[in-house]
Structure formats: structure tokens, C-alpha cells
Amino acid sequence: MRTKDDEKQKSIKNAVIKLILERGFHGTSISKIAKLAGISPATVYIYYENKEEMMRDIYEEYAYEVFEIIQKRVTSNLTGEQLIEIILYEYYYYIMRNRETFHFTEQFSNCPSLQKGCNTLKVPTSLNNILSSYKERGILIDYKNENIWALLIYPIKAIALNSTGYEISDKAILREMVTIIQNSLLL
């Protein structure tokens, strides 16, 4: 029995992301993934049972990656302003540093045929618990967590996707959005 190699698996993931962005789901085959990854098609099946499973696994890994980064930075002892600022800036800079991965997860999340059988992406419980504690302490307005996350995520995503990441106006727009969101959510 052949063993798994982290470098080969990373090569497979990189090939999947590149091919999906270039050719879409139906234009991406196991043989094309293997060729781009520099391995045999049989090797791909050591890591993934089939193409759909592979896509879902890679999607879930990268879709949750940003939450893991945010989770490491936020604690319940931050001010409300700091909490919102950290979440927004971490999300923005994650998108800017991981554009291909982010676009892959966006493309996957908008493809109904790929989502079939895939768990709906949910914000980790620990992050929702932090929001709840801020609401209980009277720091955040008592909106549903799903709405708070929508206010936090979608405007920043729009800014990041339209940003070059270097222009002073991009940073000013981001800073202004942070202020708007803070004003919208803090008591």
C-alpha cells in the first residue's frame, strides 16, 4: 500500500485550484490534475476517492482557513472597536494574500452541483460565542450572529475584490468601512 506524502497532496491542491479557476469544474479532470501536479492519476486516488470528494475537501479546508486565522487573533477581552477591526482587517488581508484560494472557494460556494452533499459553511462556534459574549456585555447590538457576520464579511469582500492592495485610496476605503461597521454594530 502506498503512503501519503504532504508535498504531493499540496501539489494536488494547487493543481485543483489552478485548473478550476482556468477551466471550471467540468474542464478539470483527474488526469489534468495529476499532470499539473507532476504525479500519476492513480496517486490522486490515494488522497481522494473521487473528484467531487476532492473538491469538497479542498473547499472546506480553505474556506475555514480564514476563520482559523481570525480565531487566533480575537479574544473576549478586546474592546468592541478592536474586535471588529481585527476581524475586518484579517479578512481583508487574507483575501489579498490568498487570491487564488479565495476565488476557488467563492467559485465552489456558488456552484450548486458541487455543494450537493457538502456541509454548509458555518462560522466556528468559538467565534459565534465571542460575538454572543460581546452582545451579553452590552458592547455589540443584539443582532443575530448571521447578520453580524454578513455585515462584517460582505463589505470587506467587495473592497478586497476591487482593490489593488497598494493604493492609498484602497486603504482609505477600507478604514472608512471599518468605521461604518463599528458604528453599525457597537452600542
UniProtKB/TrEMBL annotation:
DNA-binding region: 29-48
Keywords on record: DNA-binding
Keyword Protein transport attached: no
GO molecular function per UniProt: DNA binding
This protein's record includes keyword DNA-binding: yes
PROSITE patterns, per database record: HTH_TETR_2
Domain HTH tetR-type: 6-66
Xref: InterPro entries: Homeodomain-like_sf (IPR009057), HTH-type_Tx_Regulator (IPR050624), HTH_TetR (IPR001647)
PANTHER family, per database record: ACREF/ENVCD OPERON REPRESSOR-RELATED, ACREF_ENVCD OPERON REPRESSOR-RELATED
Protein's UniProt name: TetR family transcriptional regulator
